[in-house]
C-alpha cells in the first residue's frame, strides 16, 4: 500500500515548515462588518478549519484599502485598529498546528457597480458588454496612487505578522488588480508600469518587495494565474516568466490558478470541455504545473478540481506540485481534511452550482455566492447545506449584496 503523501511535511525556502501537504485555499467569506472589520464569525469559522488537520490555511480576500472593496463584508487591514480581533482570528486557526496565511488583495476594476466611489485599474478598460451592468468602467491609476497601493500591501502584511498570522499570500490571480497589471488586455499603459511584459511585472514585484520588508522569517506566497483564458490577456509564457522572476526574488510558495470573472476557469465552468485523460487527473491546472516545475524549484500549490485522496496523491507523486489546495469541498464538509489525511474521501462531493440564469452562470458568480452562504452558516456555528438551491442562493445573495452595498456606502459617507 503506497504511503499517503499528503502527510509529508514541507520546508519552505525561508525555513518555515508546513506540517503536511494539504491546504485550504482562499474562498471569499464576506463575514466582516459593513465597516469592514473582522468578526467573531471569522474566528468561529477558522477555529473549525483549524482542528481539521490542515497543513496550511489561506484566508479569503482581505483588502488593503476601505476605498477599494471587492464586495460588501470584506475585511480591510489598513492599521492596527482591529488588532484584538485579528489576534483571536490568528489564534483560532493556528492553535492546533496549522499555518494560517492572510490573502491580501486589491480588487482594481473587479468590484460590483456602486460599491466604491471609484475603481482604479492600470488602464480605463471596461468589462465586456454583457457584464457592463454589473461593473463600472475603472479610472486609470496615477503613479502616486500605484505607490500608495504598494505601501498599503506592506502595512497590511506588517499588521498580519503582529497579530500572529503565520504568513501572507499575495492575490495576483482571478482578474483582481495585480492580475490586471500583468495582463496586456487590462494594462495598456506606456509608462514604467506597462508596455512590455517586464514593465507589467514591475507592480507585482514591487508589492512583493514591500511585503518582504516585514522580515525574511515571515513566509510570503502568491496566487498566480497560469493564464487569463481571455483574448489578449495574460498568457502561459508570461506566467512562466513571472514565476521565474518571483523565484529569483525569493517567494516562498506559488499557488497556480487561472481565469477571471470574464473567463472563470478557476470555477470549473471552462474545464467541462477538457479531454477525458486530463479530466481523470482531477486538477484543473496540473498540465501548467508541470511546465512551472521545469521553470522553478520553488514549492508549487495547485488548487481546483481535486476530488479524491487518490487523485491528490497521484498529483503529488508526479512531482509537479508540492501542496494540494482544496477550497469548495471545505465549505460543504469542513471536516474533510481529517478523512483525506487518512487516505479516505469525503462523504461530500463538489457539484456544479447553477442559478439557471445564463448571464450569471457564465460569470462564475454562483461559485462565489453559493459557497459564501455555506461559510456564513459555519461561522454562525451551524452546518452547511450542500443541497441548497442555486437560484434561491443567488436571489438571497443579490438582496444581501444590495443591502450591504447600501450600508457600506452610508457608513463611508459618515466617516
TrEMBL record:
Entry keywords, A to Z: Flavoprotein, Oxidoreductase
Domain NADH:flavin oxidoreductase/NADH oxidase N-terminal: 8-344
Family annotation (Pfam families): Oxidored_FMN (PF00724)
InterPro entries, per the entry: Aldolase_TIM, NADH_flavin_oxidoreductase, OxRdtase_FMN_N
Keyword DNA-binding attributed: no
Protein's UniProt name: NADH:flavin oxidoreductase/NADH oxidase family protein
Organism: Ideonella oryzae
Amino acid at each position: 500500500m503506497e504511503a499517503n503523501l499528503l502527510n509529508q511535511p514541507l520546508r519552505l525556502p525561508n525555513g518555515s515548515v508546513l506540517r503536511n501537504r494539504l491546504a485550504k485555499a482562499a474562498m471569499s467569506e464576506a463575514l466582516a462588518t459593513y465597516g469592514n472589520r473582522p468578526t467573531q464569525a471569522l474566528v468561529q469559522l477558522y477555529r473549525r478549519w483549524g482542528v481539521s488537520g490542515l497543513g496550511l490555511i489561506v484566508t479569503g480576500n482581505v483588502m488593503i484599502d476601505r476605498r477599494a472593496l471587492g464586495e460588501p463584508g470584506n475585511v480591510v487591514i489598513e492599521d492596527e485598529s482591529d488588532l484584538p480581533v485579528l489576534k483571536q482570528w490568528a489564534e483560532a486557526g493556528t492553535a492546533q498546528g496549522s499555518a494560517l496565511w492572510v490573502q491580501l488583495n486589491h480588487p482594481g476594476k473587479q468590484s460590483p457597480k456602486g460599491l466604491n466611489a471609484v475603481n482604479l485599474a492600470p488602464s480605463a478598460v471596461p468589462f465586456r458588454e454583457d457584464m457592463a451592468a454589473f461593473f463600472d468602467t475603472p479610472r486609470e491609476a496615477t503613479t502616486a496612487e500605484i505607490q500608495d497601493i504598494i505601501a498599503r500591501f506592506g502595512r497590511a502584511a506588517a499588521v498580519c505578522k503582529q497579530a500572529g498570522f503565520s504568513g501572507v499570500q499575495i492575490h495576483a490571480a482571478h482578474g483582481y488588480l495585480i492580475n490586471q497589471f500583468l495582463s496586456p488586455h487590462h494594462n495598456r499603459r506606456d509608462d514604467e508600469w506597462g508596455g512590455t511584459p517586464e514593465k507589467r511585472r514591475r507592480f507585482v514585484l514591487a508589492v512583493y518587495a514591500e511585503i518582504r520588508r516585514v522580515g525574511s522569517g515571515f513566509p510570503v506566497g502568491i496566487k498566480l494565474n497560469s493564464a487569463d483564458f481571455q483574448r489578449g490577456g495574460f498568457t502561459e509564457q508570461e506566467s512562466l516568466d513571472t514565476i521565474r522572476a518571483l523565484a529569483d526574488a525569493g517567494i516562498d510558495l506559488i499557488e497556480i490558478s487561472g481565469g477571471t470573472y470574464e473567463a472563470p476557469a478557476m470555477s470549473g465552468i471552462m474545464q467541462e470541455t477538457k479531454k477525458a485523460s486530463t479530466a481523470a487527473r482531477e486538477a484543473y491546472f496540473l498540465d501548467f504545473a508541470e511546465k512551472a516545475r521545469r521553470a522553478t524549484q520553488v514549492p508549487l500549490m495547485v488548487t481546483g478540481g481535486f476530488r479524491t485522496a487518490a487523485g491528490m496523491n497521484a498529483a503529488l507523486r508526479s512531482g509537479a506540485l508540492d501542496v494540494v489546495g482544496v477550497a469548495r469541498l471545505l465549505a460543504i464538509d469542513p471536516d474533510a481534511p481529517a478523512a483525506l489525511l487518512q487516505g479516505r474521501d469525503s462523504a461530500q462531493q463538489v457539484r456544479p452550482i447553477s442559478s439557471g440564469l445564463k448571464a450569471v452562470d457564465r460569470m462564475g458568480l454562483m461559485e462565489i455566492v453559493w459557497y459564501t452562504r455555506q461559510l456564513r452558516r459555519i461561522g454562525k456555528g451551524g452546518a452547511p447545506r450542500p443541497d441548497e438551491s442555486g437560484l434561491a442562493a443567488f436571489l438571497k445573495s443579490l438582496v444581501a449584496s444590495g443591502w450591504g452595498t447600501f450600508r457600506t456606502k452610508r457608513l463611508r459617507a459618515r466617516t
